[in-house]
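chain below, 236 aa
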Amino acid sequence: MSPEETTRRLSWTLRGGYEWLAWQAGRRWVAVILIAGILAVDLGLPWQGWAFPVRAVLDAPCHLATGLICLGAITRSLGRPPDPRFGWALLICSNAVDLDHLPLEFGSRALTAGTPRPYTHALWVAAVLIVAALAVRSWPRGAGTPASATTVRILPGAACGVCGHFMRDIATAPMSMWWPLTNAAVRVSYWWYVAVIVVIAASPVIPRSRDGRFASLYLPEASRRRELDAISNHIL
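prediction:
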């Protein structure tokens, strides 16, 4: 098997895996299971008083579950999974922002002097990503390059992932949301977070304007297979 064919097959595998994951996340019973898992960790275990490695191991799946709930809602609203570059960026950034905790764990307070969480756990990070995502929306037509088209899709996904991360964080422990304007810690009721993810999980399928029917998320297996085959043919 040539390197080119191996690359194409890997691309197809990743695309097919993402399509399957997005479809499953869009099923409401899956969202119910994800919410139940989050509640079991948050209310059933005193994990916030444990050592950082244990907290990270327990908190990361909850952040990922929050990202999957958001991805599922977007899939339902579109009637199909969003672009894989958007979806993977959303899921990765739903956890990747927590890498800013590592300096403190290695003995450096360069990112946390005077604040309960790192300076990058603040609203300015989400604002920068949102502004950047809006600013590059004209790139595909203007630049016409694969890199620019990819950037247009990754930035909104990253913004969604970070916003979902902060939505959970501010309900589980204080964070200096308004840094650098102030170091003041902010926290909201945990049940606000639960209410928001329940609303997101319950979001309806939006009618398709072209034919007036509701977008069918739960396609029959044969229809879903034809859709994936079309993707495979396009890649290969």
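Residues 9-235 form one domain. Residues 209-224, 230-236 have pLDDT under 50 and may be disordered.
thats it, cya
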